[in-house]
Amino acid sequence: MPELPEVETVKRTLNTLVQGKKIQKVTVRLPRIIRRPDDIRVFETMLEGHTIERVERRGKFLRFLLDGLVLVSHLRMEGRYGLYAAEEPLDKHTHVIFHFEDGTELRYTDVRQFGTMDLFLPGDDLSLPPLNKLGLEPLDPEFTPEAFKDLVAGKNTKIKPLLLNQAYVVGIGNIYVDESLHRAGIHPETAAKSLTAEQLNRLHQAIVATLTEAVNAGGSSVKSYVNGQGVSGSYQHKLLIYGRKDQACYSCGSVVEKSVVGGRGTHFCPSCQPLLLM
Ligand SMILES: [Zn+2]
Questions:
Q1: pLDDT cut 90: percent of the chain above it
Q2: Distance from CA of residue 41 to its chain's centroid?
Q3: What is the distance between the alpha carbons of residues 138 and 213, in angstroms, rounded to a whole number?
Q4: Bridge partners for 69 per DSSP
C-alpha cells in the first residue's frame, strides 16, 4: 500500500498533469469505488463542468480541490492514476474516467478494486469521514517532538501498532514504521509508555528524516507501485531494514529478523533494536 511518500509523489505528479483542467464528463465503470454520494450518476453529474484547481494530500488520501467540490481519493493497495489521450485504449482495470475538455482523460486504474472516492462540498471533507479523525501530519510544523511525546505518553500499547494508527500520526505504514524504529534503535514491540524522553526524541527525528528522504526520492516501488506519471520512486534501494529478512544489518552485521507485530510482518535487528523489559 502506498504510504505518505508515495501518495505525496502521486500528488505532486497529478499537480503537473491535471491542474487547471476542466471536466467535461465522468464515467464510473465500477460503482463500488464511489462511496459518496450513494448514486454514481449523481457523482458523475456533480463533477461535470468543474475545474481541478490543485491536488493536496491528507495522510494517505489525495484531495482534488475543484471549483466548488472536493474529491477525496484513497489508492489503498493498487490504485493509480494516469493521464491519457481520449483515443488510447482502456485498460480492463480502469474504473473511473475523468474526461477533460482538452481531449485528455485522467483514468483511475485499480487491479485489486480496494480504492475509494468520496465527493464533498468544500469544508465538509475535513469534518466528515474518512478525513475527520486523522492525526498529525508528520511533515507539518505542528509535528514537534513535544506533540509526539504527548501522543505517545502513557499509551498502553506496543509502539509499532501505535505508529500505524492513523488517528495519532498519519501517512506512516508498515514500511516506514519499520524503517523509523530501526533508525531510532527501538524494538517494535516496546511498550509505548515505557519509552524514555530520549528514545521518543530519537524516534521523532527518525520518522521525520525517513519520510523526508523518501519523499525526496519519489517514494518506494516495493511491489508494483508506480506514480501518476508512470515513473518509479527509488527509495526502495535505500531501505535499511524493511524486506531484508535473513540479511546482515547495515549497522552491526547481525541477521535481520522478521516477526509479526500487531498482525503485520515486521523487520528489525535484534542487536540494534533490543527488546528492553521494564
Ligand atoms: Zn543491527
A1: 87
A2: 29
A3: 13
A4: 66
Residues of the chain with CATH 1.10.8.50: 145-268
| 99 in a labelled binding site | no
Q: Which three cell numbers stand for residue 21?
A: 483542467
CB contact at 8 A, 258 and 241: no
- State which fold the 145-268 domain adopts: Helicase, Ruva Protein; domain 3 (1.10.8)
CA–CA dist 191, 185 (Å, integer): 14
How remote is the CA of residue 250 from the centroid of ligand 1, in Å?
A: 7
Q: Residue 249 belongs to what H/E stretch?
A: none
Summarised one tens digit per residue, pLDDT across range 22-75 is 999 999 999 999 999 999 999 999 999 999 999 999 999 999 999 999 999 999
Q: What is the pLDDT of residues 137-168, one digit of tens each?
A: 999 999 999 999 999 988 999 999 999 999 99
Q: Is 80 a catalytic residue?
A: no
The pLDDT score that the predictor gives to residue 225 is 47
pLDDT at 77 over 90: no
CATH of domain 4-127: 3.20.190.10
Distance between CA 235 and CA 124 in Å, rounded?
35
Whether the ω angle into residue 141 lies within 30 degrees of 0, i.e. cis, is: no
d(CA 276, CA 186): 9
CA of 271 to the centre of ligand 1 (A): 5
215 alpha carbon – ligand 1 mean position (Å): 25
Residue 3 annotated to the active site: yes
52 C-alpha to ligand 1 centroid (Å):
47
Backbone φ and ψ for 118, nearest 5 degrees, come out as -130, 130
Q: Given 11, 60, 107, 202, which residue is catalytic?
A: 60
Q: CATH 3.20.190.10: which residues of the chain?
A: 4-127
pTM, rounded to two decimals: 0.93
Q: Is 92 annotated as a binding residue?
A: no
